[in-house]
Amino acid sequence: MRRGLVILLVIAEAVTAWSEYEAPLVEATPDEKTGIYYFEWIVEETMTMATSGVRGEGFFEVVDYVVNETDNPWRVRISEFETHCADAVEWNNDKHNFSSLLQLDGRHQVVFTINGKTPADPIVVPLGAEIQLTVRNHLMATDMTMHVHGLNMRGNWFNDGIPFLQQCPIQAKSSHVYRIFADTIGTHWVHGHLGVDRGQGLLGAFIVTEGGKRDIREYAMVLQDWFANDWKHIWLLKKWGLMKWHRGLENPEHGSQCHQPTYTHDNGDLFADMALQSLLVNTKGWHNQSDVLHHPEKLPLTQFRIKQDSE
Ligand SMILES: *[C@@H]1O[C@H](CO)[C@@H](O)[C@H](O)[C@H]1NC(C)=O
Ligand SMILES: *[C@@H]1O[C@H](CO)[C@@H](O)[C@H](O)[C@H]1NC(C)=O
Ligand SMILES: *[C@@H]1O[C@H](CO)[C@@H](O)[C@H](O)[C@H]1NC(C)=O
Question: Where is each Plastocyanin-like domain found (predicted)?
């Protein structure tokens, strides 16, 4: 009896500390009166590996994950000015709420999020659905648009989100409603379409089902490569032909870190001229390849809950 209680407590702790399993897909429900599927996206800057902590709304506490620590790998840094950086480490405790932790590759980075997440929660609607997606651009000073792949959009080009061609960008602190018809079944994606905003986190799955109840549990997997530098930096290095130093020009040891592709290509755009840094499955991956190779079981990676076959 006592042992049962202890196990229960351990499970409860793990769940509050970090969202362990991915959420299965849930088909959206339409508005009862209009039959329209309404979505609202708030786009803003968010810090990865940070948690809204003890200092109230609008503040973050920076979180680290210590791979070699077995008991409690999560730790929170103390942000008060008075505490010296070298002493500013506090082990995870009840004061901190990790439930909305955005991990990505485990480094601290400012990214664009959709309702606090990247990738966004998947949009799942049945074929034929009429969607009204209100996008509220709360970014500090960045305009944006949204574009959905895989749909026909016939007669509806002005909702397709190509900036300057199909619409004026949604300016910072403004909003825009996209009216979209789910005209093609499939697993598509939706992404920001101004500059390289999709590389900063503006993306998500957009799934059009056949409709009707499905008696299986389904998940979306969004796969991405992810970089330590921000995408504007990477894009400009590419434009200026400096990609081999994209790991860091300022690093005196860049000679040894220089990336040289070892394969040829047919005069097309060699996209892989960026050395791969991290792979994300949904919102989690890991930046340290030595850790990925040597002890993947210790890393906080995306997990799916699956069901054992009944015999
Ligand atoms: C983990 O590694 C760091 C530095 O690499 C070290 O300071 C720390 O003591 C290690 N922790 C454990 C539990 O081994
Ligand atoms: C933790 O944060 C989540 C998401 O922001 C919120 O829904 C939840 O109520 C919070 N939990 C506590 C104990 O504050
Ligand atoms: C990766 O992790 C290993 C051990 O956990 C450490 O020795 C190494 O310095 C790390 N590499 C980088 C680039 O952080």
Answer: 105-210
User: Which of 9-18, 26-35, 76-85 has maximum average pLDDT?
Assistant: 26-35
In this structure, which residue's CA is closest to atom 4 in ligand 3?
Answer: 291
Q: Which ligand is nearest to the CA of 57?
A: 2
C-alpha 229 to ligand 3 mean position (Å):
18
Which protein residue's CA is at the shortest distance from atom 5 of ligand 1?
68
Contacts for 303-307 with beta carbons within 8 Å, 24 or more apart? 303/20, 303/21, 303/22, 304/21, 304/22, 304/219, 305/21, 305/22, 305/24, 305/217, 306/217, 307/217
Per DSSP, which regions of the chain are E strands?
37-47, 50-51, 61-65, 74-77, 89-91, 110-114, 120-126, 130-137, 146-148, 175-181, 186-192, 203-209, 223-226, 278-281, 284-285
User: Is the CB of residue 29 below 6 angstroms from any atom belonging to ligand 1?
Assistant: no
Statement: residue 78 has pLDDT above 80:
yes
| pLDDT digit string, tens, across residues 216-245 | 889 999 999 898 888 888 888 888 888 777
Which residues have any ligand 3 atom within 6 Å of their CB?
67, 288, 290-291
Domains and CATH numbers, the chain: 5-47+112-226 (2.60.40.420)
Q: Residue 134: count other Cβ atoms within 10 Å of its Cβ.
A: 13
Q: How far is the CA of 7 from the centre of ligand 1 (A)?
A: 28
Is residue 97 in contact with ligand 2, taking CB distance under 6 Å? yes
How many whole angstroms separate alpha carbon 226 and alpha carbon 105? 7
